[in-house]
Amino acid sequence: MTTTEHQRAVKAAADELIDVSFTVNGTPVTIRVPARMHLADALRQHLGLTGTHLGCEHGVCGMCTVLVDGDAARACLVFAVQAEGTDVVTVEGLGTQDDQHPLQQAFSHHHALQCGFCTPGFLMSSYDLLTHEPGVDDERLPEELSGVICRCTGYRGILAAVADVAEAHPEGVPAPRNCAPRTLVGRGGAATAAAPEAAPVGDAEEAVPTDITRPTGTPTITVEVTRLLTSPLDDIWAVMTDVHRLARCLPGAEMTEDLGDDRYRGRATVALGPVRLAFRGLARITERDESLHRLALLAQGADTGGNRTAADIGLRATATPDGGTELRADAAVFLSGRIAQFGRALAGDVSQRMFEQFAHALDETARTGQPPDVGAGPGALSIGVAAVRDAVRRRLAAVRTTLQERRARRRGC
Amino acid sequence: MRLGRPGTLVDINAVVGLDGFERRKGALRIGATVRQRHVERSSAAAAVPLLGLALPFVGHRELRSRGTVCGSLAHADPGAELPAVALCLGATLEITGPSGRRTVRAADFFQGAMTTAVGTDEILSAVEFPAAGPGEGFGFAELARRHGDFALAGVVTRVRSRDGSVADAVLSGFGVSDRPVTRDVTELVRAAAGEADVETALRPGTEELARVMVDTAGDAHGSQGYRRRLFAVLAARELARANRRATESTS
């Protein structure tokens, strides 16, 4: 008996690192994992896909259910090395917060979750069921969904949600909505086809490739900010096209090397209270439109803790009637690793605040010719403080509104 | 459950020649790497109706999409469904090792809890289930606390009719001993087949059989007495069903 060509026979010690290539949510990935690491750990630790949960880790609870080549499987019962050449879909591939899969909408509508721990398992299991048995009878659902355990809901909401989707899609449930090649780099040395030269994290200097590709897929956050600057358009544009001065306007950032062809190496520090992140990365200017005063750049970075970020940034300056400049920024920011857990709200706040500081520094530089001292670190620290302050203010405002509404209702009664 | 900690693990999934799945000389041959769910969905499995009856009870969908028929046989859990099916049908198991291939009958294959005739340097490379012929009827039932759990007790039955009378009948049980157990029950079924209520007529006989075939001690999920009673009820019901199907299949 021989082995097929694409799956070479490898003999390895249990903890020996093996390269495994497969597709996750439409993205080809290659990761380097211990021979006996299971797929769920690989997805979570190496690819940052923490939507796949782990409960019992011996195939009983169903939390880690994912699709392997279109069939639901326990990710804790498949070694990562066995995923070689397969097509894996996790709950992240099913839909996004803004574009939910019908199953996710139905779970939300029927309150089919409380703590949410089992939800990824139930979503992937019911996706598998409705794909292979579209017309499944309501009466069979309890049995068919018995492969995942829920300790909160009593299952009623879950059964109602799946029954709803089965009825709405008698020809089969729609395909996953978030499967496309994307930037997917997590902790512990993952590399994607988009950045095949990325070395294992731990050696951040080497982890920075010399070229950079446009991230694809759904960004973690998108930033759209417009700021009015006092300096005239020509002065602003002069700074925007001078990379050295431009870099110094970025809070916490520093350019360390000009690689030529509009590619630059740099460092950036972001501090949020006790959390200090030091990224090393690469940026490339992809567009410099003199007539539209438009600048586009791609940036990517990694820190030694396995956090990675990539951004697709567009800047456009327009003259205002009063002789000032309107600066508009559009950025798609991709985060993976632990920083992704900050959540979109806080990450968005931080990005917004960073842009405001950048816009302010840009204005200063255009006016005085010299950038203010934003690269020293305190600027970055204050970003965190300001973001938290804003979040607290919003929360207080919400509480105030609620109280006012309650009072209004009480008066009305 | 992380109880076994093998020093060496060999993934046989990519080995060419282990994924065969075909009808062959009155039998259905299933290679070592053929998934349970593949068999469940395949029209070829109709040749062995007991597989269609038993497979939905093997774990859950999510497990059957990775689990293999041969894997279940080689693991030989006393509470598992497929070993009892193999035993009831008199399946032939093909074992491959350094000295070549050999075949073993199901009756000689299961030697105890999770213990089989497969040596340490061998693998179970395929299994052949005999295809159902005319005049054959089958029954399958199990009771578990939740769907997908190992059964408290389960039965597999096969009855063959010829010219309107019972030619032979087999009863196998699982979850009742340290391995699947089987008995020739031709005389019992033949005697009951003429009665108006076959199931009731079978009951004294299956109660007798339960005392011999069910030797598992009781546990938190059910005493030995409960399991014997459960086994007797399921056995009578599924033997009657197999007999009915056998008669229908000849007519």
Give a verbal description of the structure:
The complex is a heterodimer of chains A (413) and B (251). Chain A is of the alpha+beta class and 413 residues long. Chain A folds into two domains: 15-180, Roll (Ubiquitin-like (UB roll)), CATH 3.10.20.30; 204-397, 2-Layer Sandwich (Alpha-D-Glucose-1,6-Bisphosphate, Chain A, domain 4). Chain A has eleven helices and 13 strands. Chain A is globular and about 75 Å long. Chain B is α+β, with helices and mostly antiparallel strands and 251 residues long. Chain B has two domains: 21-130, Uridine Diphospho-n-acetylenolpyruvylglucosamine Reductase, domain 3; 136-250, CO dehydrogenase flavoprotein, C-terminal domain (Enolase-like, domain 1), CATH 3.30.390. Helix content of chain B is 35%, strand content 26%. A five-stranded antiparallel β-sheet of chain B has the order 1-2-7-3-4. Chain B is globular. In chain B, 50% of the residues are buried. The mean pLDDT of chain B is 94.
User: How can the largest sheet of chain A be summarized?
Assistant: 7 strands, antiparallel
| CATH level-four homologous superfamily name of the largest domain in chain B | CO dehydrogenase flavoprotein, C-terminal domain
CATH architecture of the largest domain in chain B: 2-Layer Sandwich
* Average pLDDT rating of chain B: 94
Q: What is the strand tally of chain B?
A: 11
Helical fraction of chain B = 25-40%
- The CATH topology annotation of the largest domain in chain B reads as Enolase-like, domain 1
Distance between the termini of chain A: 82 Å
Share in helix of chain A: 25-40%
Tally the structural domains of chain A: 2
Measured by residues with Cβ under 8 Å of the partner chain's Cβ, the largest interface is:
A-B, 31 and 22 residues
Second-tier CATH architecture of the largest domain in chain A = 2-Layer Sandwich
